[in-house]
Amino acid sequence: MKNTPPPKSTRHAILDILKREGPQEAKFLAKRLGITPMAVGLQLSSLVEEKMVVSEPEPARPGQRGRPGYRWALTEAANRVFPDAHALLTAGLLGSLQEVYGTQGMQKLLDARTRHQSEEYAAGMPEAGSLKEKVKALAKIRDREGYMTEVEAAPGGGFRLIENHCPICTAAKTCQGFCQSEWQVFSDLMGPGAKVVREEHLLSGDRRCVYSIAPASAPAGTPRKNQHGGGK
Asked: 111 and 212 share a domain?
């Protein structure tokens, strides 16, 4: 007999945790959600049937005895449950624009987007706020746009702006200047007293985008593949 599908609210909570925090063990998911391991197992089974999660061996630790456990991770198919900002339409339009107007035309488009986005974001930023206040305000704006954004303190000072989802990922793959444009917006908003470096990049194979934002005098994070925060 087929298992009864789990409630959508709990199912979405599992997908949200895996999206934000990466692969996790079933017992961790059960503890976080306050439900039994059996209940989590039923939900994971349903998600496996829909090809949205997959189990993978947990990396072995030095001195570990016995067989390694398994963690659950999202598949690419799971992206359909997260905001996608009309991805296919946008990608098609960008491809057509590039074909008609060429590289210079696309650069003008990106320059205009950078300018407008900077102005829009600046309206929601504290005028004379600290770096912490600016980063938190930026995270709030990005989270509203569907980036599933978090902020955490970075070792050595500064902060890490973590974006667990990219609602414009398909568009960014078509025109990777979008990533450079967004890094430029972040840098402009933080001002000359701070430096912004992208440590992780979804289009470089990471599962999320992470920006190190630190005072200019403090060591920032290591750029992904020698990128100074910009796009590939």
From this structure: yes
Do 201 and 224 meet the contact criterion of CB atoms below 8 Å apart?
A: yes
Domain boundary among 39, 54, 81: 81
In-domain check, residue 209: yes
101 and 180 assigned to the same domain? yes
Helical packing angle, 26-33 and 8-21, nearest 10° = 120
User: Which CATH number fits the domain that encloses residue 114?
Assistant: 3.30.1380
Is 2 a member of any domain? no
pLDDT (tens digit, 9 = 90+) per residue, 156-176?
889 999 999 988 887 777 777
Q: Regarding beta strands 149-153 and 53-57, do their DSSP bridges make them parallel or antiparallel, or are they unpaired? A: unpaired
> Does residue 196 contact residue 187 with C-beta atoms inside 8 Å?
yes
Between the CA atoms of 97, 170, 164 and 52, what dihedral angle is there, to the nearest 10 degrees? Answer: 170
Residues 203 and 219: their CA atoms lie apart, in Å, by 25
pTM recorded for the entire structure: 0.66
User: Which of the listed residues 29, 47, 81 is the one where a domain comes to its end?
Assistant: 81
Q: Which of 170, 204, 205, 210 is nearest to 186 (CA)?
A: 210
pLDDT bracket for residue 79 (50, 70, 90): confident
Statement: residue 102 has pLDDT above 90: no
User: Tell me, what CATH number does 39's domain have?
Assistant: 1.10.10.10
What pLDDT is attached to residue 19?
Answer: 92
Q: Which domain holds residue 29?
A: 8-81
Q: H or E element: which one contains 204?
A: none
Q: What is the pLDDT of residues 15-29, one digit of tens each?
A: 999 999 999 999 999
